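Researcher: Let's do a round of design. I'm pasting the C-alpha cells now; please hold your answer until I've finished.
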C-alpha cells in the first residue's frame, strides 16, 4: 500500500521554516520551476516566497510491503508555480499480472505534468494539464490521478479521475471532500495507455475558495480506504501549524494504523 499525504496550510504571511516542510512567504519572488517528487520515502520541495499566500507542503509515501523494493506504484509532484500545484497519481496494480510495472505509467504521467505546469496552453487549468500530461505519456499502464492548483487569491482548482482523494479541513471540520469515480467496486476511473480508459473529459472538476488556516490533505485511495475522515481531522488539528510538529509526527499514528490494517489484511 502506498500513501502519499499532502498537508498544505494557507495563510496571509509566515516566515520560511525548517526542513520538515516548505512555505511561501512575502520576502521574495517565486522562481518559475517545479520539482518532481516521484517515490521518495519523505521529500520536501524548497519553495521561495509568495506575496499573497503562504503555502506549506509536506509529503510522505508508504509502499505496500510487497512493493517496497521498487518504491511502490504511486507518484506525485509539487510545484511552486503561481500559488502552488500538487498532484498524485496511483498506478493501477492489475498491470502487474501482465508483467507490466504499474509504477512506470504513474511516474511518467507526473513527470509530464510537472513539465507542462507552466505551459501557456494549460493556462493554469488542472484539467488541461491532465490532458497534456496524459497525451505525452508513452508507458504502458494506467493510473488514477488528482491535480490541485492554488491561485494566488486563494481559489483552489481541482481535477480528479478515479479514487485519489482530497480533504479540506477548516477549524476542525471537513469543509470539502472529493468524490471517487468508479465503474464498479475496485475498478476506478483511470487514465490509461489503452483506448478503453478515461480521458481528461471524464475528470471531476471542482473550485474551492480557501481561507487562512485551511489544511489540505491529499492522497491515493491507500490513505482514505484505511483511515476515517475523523481520524485525519484529529491528527491535523492537534497542531496549530505544520511547522510546530512536522508532517511525519502529525501523521505518525495514521501511518501506524495503515500498517496495522495491512497486517490484518494479510493475516485474514
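Researcher: That's everything. Go ahead.
Model: Designed sequence:
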Amino acid at each position: 500500500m502506498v500513501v502519499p499525504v499532502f498537508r498544505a496550510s494557507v495563510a496571509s504571511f509566515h516566515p520560511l521554516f525548517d526542513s520538515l516542510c516548505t512555505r511561501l512567504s512575502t520576502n521574495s519572488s517565486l522562481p518559475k520551476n517545479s520539482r518532481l517528487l516521484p517515490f521518495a520515502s519523505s521529500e520536501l520541495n524548497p519553495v521561495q516566497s509568495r506575496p499573497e499566500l503562504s503555502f506549506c507542503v509536506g509529503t510522505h509515501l508508504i509502499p505496500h510491503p510487497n512493493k517496497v523494493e521498487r518504491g511502490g506504484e504511486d507518484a506525485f509532484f509539487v510545484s511552486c508555480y503561481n500559488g502552488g500545484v500538487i498532484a498524485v497519481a496511483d498506478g493501477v496494480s492489475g498491470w502487474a499480472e501482465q508483467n507490466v510495472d504499474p509504477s512506470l505509467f504513474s511516474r511518467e504521467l507526473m513527470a509530464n505534468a510537472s513539465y507542462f505546469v507552466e505551459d501557456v496552453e494549460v493556462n493554469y487549468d488542472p484539467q488541461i494539464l491532465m490532458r497534456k500530461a496524459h497525451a505525452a505519456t508513452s508507458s504502458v499502464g494506467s493510473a488514477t490521478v488528482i491535480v490541485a492548483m492554488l491561485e494566488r487569491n486563494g481559489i483552489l482548482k481541482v481535477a480528479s479521475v478515479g479514487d485519489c482523494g482530497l480533504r479540506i479541513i477548516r477549524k476542525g471540520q471537513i469543509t470539502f471532500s472529493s468524490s471517487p469515480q468508479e465503474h464498479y467496486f475496485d475498478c476506478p476511473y483511470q487514465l490509461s495507455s489503452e483506448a478503453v480508459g478515461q480521458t481528461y473529459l471524464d475528470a471531476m472538476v471542482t473550485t474551492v475558495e480557501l481561507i487562512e488556516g485551511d489544511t489540505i490533505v491529499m492522497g491515493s485511495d491507500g490513505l482514505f480506504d484505511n483511515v476515517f475522515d475523523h481520524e485525519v481531522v484529529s491528527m491535523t488539528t492537534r497542531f496549530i501549524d505544520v511547522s510546530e510538529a512536522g508532517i511525519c509526527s502529525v501523521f505518525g499514528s495514521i501511518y501506524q494504523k495503515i500498517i496495522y490494517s495491512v497486517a490484518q489484511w494479510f493475516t485474514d
